[in-house]
UniProtKB/TrEMBL annotation:
InterPro entries: TPR-like_helical_dom_sf. It comes from Sphingobium naphthae. It comes from the Bacteria. This is Tetratricopeptide repeat protein.
Length: 214
């Protein structure tokens, strides 16, 4: 209601100023009043007079969504040192601040100089998934596939691409990537235990889907 009061008050003041101070001719007074009414109509159509007139601040990006555990796992499976690792650290720093677009752009810049670096492609895939709030976009898929094509035997591309596929609901594709990786991992390693548990859950879910089909 307050919005309407302010809008009508401003319209009245404007019209009064035109009549008293502007001394507009009688012939254009109706046109001026019509213009003000059109402005009020536009406010009623596009505006929201019921909203409280309090200022709002955008929520500060504080990096609360950054997955430190996942980043540490990537560092354990992929390259920890060298040029690629330095770019990844810079990208992670931006992601911690909530600057997911900038985090992805940093890796794109690095790939211009090192287009055959599987770690950078993997990092780009992860960065694009983070920027899409967990969505596996075509760009992220392309980045993961490039990493996998460059380093087909490396554990990191298979692990993280499989993880993104599983989160996107593509369970069979995730299983196909994880099964060979789990078979090659040391028997007592945490990665193998995790992958075997994930594969078991996928198998149970796929079996349930099969049973539910007519």
């Amino acid at each position: 209601m307050t919005g309407w009061i302010i809008a009508f008050a401003l319209a009245g003041l404007t019209l009064g100023g035109l009549l008293l101070l502007g001394r507009i001719p009688r012939s254009v007074r109706e046109v001026s009043a019509a213009a003000l009414l059109l402005g009020l109509a536009g406010y009623a159509w596009q505006g929201n007079p019921g909203l409280v007139g309090a200022p709002r601040k955008a929520a500060a990006a504080d990096g609360q969504d950054f997955d430190e555990e996942l980043a540490e796992k990537r560092r354990g499976l992929a390259e920890r040192f060298g040029p690629a690792a330095q770019w990844m650290m810079l990208s992670d720093g931006l992601a911690r601040q909530g600057k997911t677009k900038e985090a992805a752009n940093v890796l794109l810049s690095a790939l211009r100089d090192r287009p055959d670096d599987a770690n950078l492609w993997l990092g780009l895939g992860n960065a694009l998934v983070a920027h899409g709030d967990g969505m596996l976009s075509p760009g992220a898929q392309f980045a993961y596939r490039r990493a996998l094509a460059i380093d087909p035997d490396g554990p990191a591309p298979r692990y993280f691409y499989g993880l993104a596929l599983a989160q996107a609901g593509q369970l069979q594709a995730a299983r196909d990537l994880w099964a060979p990786l789990a078979a090659r991992a040391p028997a007592d390693s945490d990665v193998r235990k995790e992958l075997e548990a994930n594969i078991a859950r996928i198998d149970a879910m796929l079996a349930g889907e099969t049973i539910r089909r007519p």
